[in-house]
Structure formats: structure tokens, C-alpha cells
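Case 728 in the screening queue. Each case pairs one protein sequence with one candidate compound; here the compound is magnesium ion. For every case the pipeline is the same: read the inputs, emit a complex structure as C-alpha cells, and attach any notable structural observations.

Predict complex for case 728.
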Amino acid sequence: MANQRMQAYYDVLHRTPNPDKYDGKVSELFGENVFHMEAMREYLPSEAYKSMKKAIQDGTQLDRKMADQVASAMKDWSLTKGATHYTHWFQPLTGATAEKHDAFFKPVGPGKAIERFDGDLLVQQEPDASSFPNGGIRNTFEARGYTAWDPSSPAFVIDKTLCIPTIFIAYTGEALDYKMPLLKALHAVNEATVDVCQYFDKNVKKSIATLGWEQEYFLVDKALFNARPDLMMTGRAVFGHASAKGQQLDDHYFGSITARVTAFMREFENEAIRLGIPVTTRHNEVAPNQFECAPIFEECNLANDHNLLLMDILEKVARRHNFRVLLHEKPFAGVNGSGKHNNWSLSTDTGVNLLAPGKNPKSNLQFLTFFVNTIKAIHDNADLLRAAIAGAGNDHRLGANEAPPAIISAFIGSQLTELLDNIEKNVKAGKMTPEAKTELKLDIGKIPQILLDNTDRNRTSPFAFTGNKFEFRAVGSSANCSSAMIVLNTIVAKQLKDFKINVDTRIKSGDAKDEGILKELQKLIKESKKIRFEGNGYGDEWVKEAEKRGLSNLKDTPRALQVWSDKNVVKLFEEMNVLTARELEARQEIEFENYIMKIQIEARVIREMVQNFIVPAAVQYQNKMIKNVKGLMGILGDKEGKAASKSQLSIIIMISDHMNNITEMSNNMLVARKKANLIEDMEAKSIAYCDKVKVHFDKIRYHVDKLELIIDDEEWRLPKFREMLFTR
Ligand code: ADP
Ligand code: MG
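Case 728 output:
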């Protein structure tokens, strides 16, 4: 019988694409499975509709009566979509989304039943939360947590279930999820932005942060996936020699997409469209079998819910097409990993994108204000941004010459650099002369043309200004964007808050408004200069240069996570009312634990595969060689037989060498792991896992990958990179 790799490969060769299920107009599907404003207008009495609209727009609370009406309308609407169950959909700190399904169905007497769903069930629920990570919060207080409805993100129906987006909190009020602090951070940035906008336009009453994510992922055939224990258990190939051809020809990027993949994409895009996710672009990525999906940007909280939903849909639809989707940051060594660029901006209820240059000096001063404040926020909180994107998977990707390094810096382009330099030089202390002011205003007035010409897009920067938004590129593909968005919105909120205070002080002491603003901007430009970097972020020179500038380079997850307990970080989050000291501590603990578990699982898988796959294959092939040598000696005599077996003998020795190395290292790794397991403190334990356990991974891999090259293709049971990356 063929080995499992051969069998899997045979399966792949005989796949046919799924037929298209839908070939109507996609626009007709948009939002079909979402309880959006239009559906609400249809299903709600007008009073309830108005309160719901207000709750969504202003974040006001709904009273019980209204909640009952909304629940009932939601239920009626969802029944027309075939829903039988409902669930509170939430985002625990495990990174995935969670749901607990309950049936609408309720027996109300012999042979009688109704579909029931009321305000109580809509507004609050108690999932059995004991299995979600809580960083000790629930152990010391209440053993329970509850989920509470977030009306700002609409309910939707998926797989016959009405899903209600919710936050997840401990009974004592602490957040146990990503959504609650994100909503708080968005609230903080809204307030600070509106305050600063008053300098420019008194009509601004509300602002929103926008997020446009770009999700990268790999597709691997299901049969090949199932034949790789490492992909199944960890989402990445812990072994595997690079295939002869990788991504060097750049022939995958924007190349044509095969029929099987197209069929998969059409189906998941239609599902996404039905759920109101505005996906538009699809294309191949740099690595073979790597793809990207990027919807149009939306309000940050909604965009994030949509990203989580999309990751779910990708997974489900991929299985229907006999694919598995890999969201891991680095599934295959030697080819590019996957990220999730977070495009971010701020906009107002007057329809202005605050990070897009305007039409005149005044609106451009407003643009500059938000632009410079964002850069200052990045400068002051670079370590925190690094912490926000930390994770075992992303460690393989950051700084690996394919993704931004772990050093946080900002790219703004040469023209804006020149403008900031001018402001830095030309704003004078004391009263500014009318001429000096005019000159600066002229400069500032020129921005729109400048940006149109600004085509030098730098792809190596972790934080790039791209004309009308910032693009945070260091976020990992498997991450919940909230982690990055909580930090970014909080630090910008804090910076804008301080800016307002300082400019007001300048105005009180006699500066004209625009003068005060310019002087404060000048100060911020000077103070944040070292975070700006226009060169190649992938180069080694940058690492040295960054060190000279005093920028930090937190290379691994445990070191990055330490930032969460920095006393200035705690002060910042408490001041902005986003996370309490206790919540931060719990989060840090959970992230240390997540890291430990991931490395622990990888270490176990490596050992298992060494013992169950690698060594047996090596021994089998070596025995074949030994038999061959013995045979030759039998017919040719010892001396001549040996001479004729030169290459077989060298293979026999090489196999033994590699096997001995692998066994020894894997035993050392086991000892290191047992030692690390005795450590109680999560921080110290995660450092031990990083420095003492993980260090063995690549060393073991080196020898395994060499064996893969030596051993007979038929003897090797693990699907190879060329099969996983080039067949579809
Ligand atoms: P790439 O980075 O692949 O070159 P783009 O730079 O065109 O792609 O990125 C486009 C992304 O930026 C899209 O997801 C888009 O929705 C998003 N985007 C555009 N404008 C904004 C904005 N004002 N706020 C947030 N995201 C935005
Ligand atoms: Mg991008």
C-alpha cells in the first residue's frame, strides 16, 4: 500500500472544482443575513426603531421595554432566514470567537411550543465561562462571567443561528475579551478627536476611527494537511525542506487563480457579502498558494467583527472545497509569511477624513494636526505597539526579511518629511511675523498636490502613511485586530488630549489659534523625530541605526509582553479609562500562557514526529542500503563489494549522523521543557520556553530537512513543501 503521503497526493490530483452555487448579481446578496437598519425599520415599531438608531449612533442604553421589542423583531426577522437557534457571539482572549447556542424553541404545555426570545435573553447571558482564560480574575472574585449585547454591531444569521455580538465581562466588571476595551478605546479617541476638531470646525460632534484590514492566508489541500500532524496541531510546518522552486520567480503574485481556488473564493466571498462584509479585492500573494482578501474599510468595531467572521467563514468554506486554510503567520519557512495590514484613519460626522489633506490651508492645518499627533503617539508608545502585535506565530515573521522588523518606526514619504522639516525650522518662538505665517501657510496649502505626487511607497515600514491613512503592517494574520486597535486608538486619544490642553494654554498666554497650533506641532515634530524612518526597514543597517537612535527592538514575544506591566502603560490605560491595572495584569498573564502553550505544543509535535515519522523512515531507508551493500559484498566479495558501495556507505553514515543529532537534541529539548514546566511564574516560564526550549526547534529541523533530501521519496511519509505549496 502507498504510504499516507502518496495517498494524499493521489487524492489531490483527482480533485475537481466545486460547481458554482450562485451566479446572480452579488449586489443583491449584500447584507442579506444582517439585521441592519433597513431590516430594523421593517420589523420594529417606529418608537423602538428610533431608540435603536439612537443607541447605535450615540451609544445610549435601551430600556427594558425597547429591548423586548428589539428582541422580538430580531427573532421574527431571523426566523425568515431559517434561524432555529440564537447565540451571544463574543471574543474571549483565546483569540478565536466563541458562541453558545440556545434554541428559540420552547415547549409551553402538552404538544405545544413557541419560539421564544425576549429582551432579557438579548441583553445579557451567562455562558459557562469557566473554560475561557481570565488571567486569575475570576478565580479570586466571582466564578462567573457574562456576555452583554453590543448594539453598535448588528446581529446576523449564520448556519441557521442568530448571532448577537456581545462583550464578555467578569461579574466584577472586568473585561475578559477584546471587544469591551476596544469600544472604550474608540470612545476615548472619539472624545479627544472631537475636542481637537473644534479648533477647525465647530460643527463636528462625532468622529469615528476607521479600519480597513487586509487578510493574508494560505490554502493547502485537505488530504495533504491531514497527513501533516504539525499543520493539524500547530498550523505551521515544523519541518520541511524548501522546494527547489520557491517564490523567487514572483510568478504567483497577481498570477491567474486556478479553477478550484476560484470556486472556493466565489463561495466565501458570497457568504461574506451576505453577512454585510464588503469584500472587493482578491488576489494571489507573494508566496505560492498564498492569497489575500481585503474588504472596503468600515468603522473600527464593525470592521473588526467582520474580520473575525471572515476568518471563520474562510475556515468553513475551505473545508467544503477540500482545502484547509492556514491563518498562521509563518506556515512555511523559506517563503513569505502572512500578515494582516491594519489601515487606520479618523473621520468626522461632517464627512471629513482627518488624515487626508484638504483643499485649503485651514483644512490642511487640521490634517497636519492629526498627522503629527499620530506620529508623536507612535513615538511615545512604540513598545506598546510592539506588545500589541506580539505572538508566537508573529515571532517567525517580524524581521525575517519579508515583514517589517520588530522595531517600530513610521514612514511618511519625502515630501511630508520636507514639510515637517520646514515647520521644525521656520516656526519661531514669540510672536510670528505676518510674513513668516504666510510662508508657512503657503507651504501647508500645497499639501494636496504634494501627496498626489507622493508615489514612493515604502513597503518595509511597520507603520506607513499611505496618502490618506496609516497602515500598521506588523499585525499578524491570525490576530484579533482589536489588540492593535485598542492600543492605537488609546495612544492617539491620549496624545490628542494632551495636545488640546497644551494648545489651549498657548492660546491663553497670548498666541493666536493657528500660531499656538503650529508651535505645538513644531514641538511634537522635534520630539518624535527619531521614530521617522524612510529607508529600507528590512536591512541590517536599520537595526544598527535604530539602536543608535535609542529605539527598542523587542525581538520575541515574552520580552514584548513585559511591556503590558510597565507603570507608564498602566497609567495611560487607566487615565484613558480603557483598561484597569487588574485587567492589564490579567491580559499579560493570559498572553504569557498562550505563548507557553503554543511553544509547548510545537515541542511535543516535533518530538512525536521525530519518533514516529522521521526516525522510522530513516531506519527503513538505511536498512535498504545495508541490504544492498551486503548483497554487493555477497556477489563481489567483501573487498570489492565494499568498494562498489561507496555512495551507499556514505549515505548509511550520513543517516546515522543526522539521526544521532536529532535524537540527542530532541532529548535535550525534553529535559529543557521538563525544567521549564516546574516554573510557576508565567513570565519566567515563557522566557524559559523561548530561550531554552524553542532554541532547539531550528537545530532539530536542520537535520530532519537534510534527511528529507537523502531519503527515498517513496519512504518519506510527510507531504513535502512542493506538494503543499504548488498543488491546488
Ligand atoms: P495595499 O496595501 O495592498 O497596497 P491599499 O494601500 O490600497 O492596498 O490598501 C487599501 C486598504 O486600505 C483597503 O482595505 C481600504 O479599505 C483601506 N482604506 C482606505 N481608506 C481608508 C481609511 N480612510 N481608513 C481605513 N482604511 C482605509
Ligand atoms: Mg497593505
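Case 728 observations:
- The chain has three domains: 31-177, 186-579, 594-726.
- The CA atoms of residues 399 and 405 lie 4 Å apart.
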